Automatic annotation (TrEMBL):
InterPro entries, per the entry: HAMP_dom, HATPase_C_sf, HATPase_dom, His_kinase_dom, HisK_dim/P_dom, HisK_dim/P_sf, Sig_transdc_His_kin-like_C, TCS_sensor_his_kinase
Location of the HAMP domain: 155-209
Residues that span the membrane, as ranges: 12-34, 129-149
Primary location group: membrane
UniProt catalytic activity: ATP + protein L-histidine = ADP + protein N-phospho-L-histidine
Species: Aromatoleum petrolei
Identification of the protein by name: histidine kinase
Amino acid sequence: MRAPQSLASRIVAAFVLMAAVVAGVFALIVVNAIDTVETRLVSDAMNRQLDFIIDEADAGRFPALGPGLDFYVAPVGASASLPAWLAPMRPGLHETENDDEAYHVLVRDRNGMRHVLVLDQDDFERRETMLFVAVTAGVVISILAAALLGRALARTVISPVVRLSGQVQHREQQLPLAPPLATEYAEDEVGKLAAAFDETLGSLRAALEREQLFTSDVSHELRTPLMVIASSCELLEAQALAPPQRAQADRISRACAEMQELVETFLGLARAPQERGTKLAGTSLAAVATEQLHRWQPEATQRGLALDLVSEGVDEGVYPAPLLRAVLTNLVRNAIHYTDAGFVRVVLRDGGFSVLDSGAGIPEAERALVFRPFARGGSTRGDGIGIGLSLVKRICDRQGWKITLSAREGCGCEFRVELRTS
């Protein structure tokens, strides 16, 4: 996986790459041009020197040779009189080596004689090495200069972007009284981006405030009728009721207690992150799973389904009872609701659980949408409005739990919840 790179590092990398390419191409051109020119100059100088030597020799004089020069004369075809490393050479200018020494050799045939002029390349090689060092140093200096210039420009150019990024990521910027961002920037691209952030953050703040107010108001208003129902159930239970009536009263009492827990759950979800300090009663995974099994067993039996509880490991964690109960309730209810025949199974393990069923399953194209509010499968049934799984996802996100959906071999699906993700 590639490590993320900052915008500044990408700007510096672009400057360095551009400098390396330009300097490298320029260095190659310079080296080739100088090599060509120097080779031409050496050829012209050796030809003039050989002309002078031959003219002097024809006049009966043999001039003194300069340092690094050697001269040989032999009849054409009598190469044995030449040094062995020079004998095979044809007329023209050559670059060769002998005993690890480099030489320029000029061979010319004239009047049946072969004239060979040899020039030691030590000075030439020394100048060539200095040229390569100078060009290499120039390339390195260009790259370093491009890196420094790119770094300086990157700091100057992207400093408003970095400051805007920090302000947007700051949690206080989401508060209703947070000052606008656009007033701190010039009316350029960054200023327009800040104005767009202001508009988006304003819309988000308004939406979050509406959601929190709605949830809080509904939950608050439900408390009074729930208290009336609970007190009425207590009065009924204190009377001598026949078994059928007592069973109905108990059922109403349990439903009332569940609604009270749901009210607390919704209030907890509606609170802002910094206000979520409300302590919820803790419970174990096994206790909630057993409770849900007993609760949904009658409906599963009525539908002809086998509702099983399987333990693959012991989980000793303690979790918020209302939230864990809401997650399990919605998953088990959905599984029973969408399964025509077969089974619904709750599998407990250390650190989480799964709810499996043998129903029709959920097509792969729809799995990414099931956790969205008001999303329902293609085989809709009943009067559900598609918020159960959305509520489950919100609770899991709030608690740091992880929920995934996968298809089972054969048919059906599996909702897997990890209660400890670290």
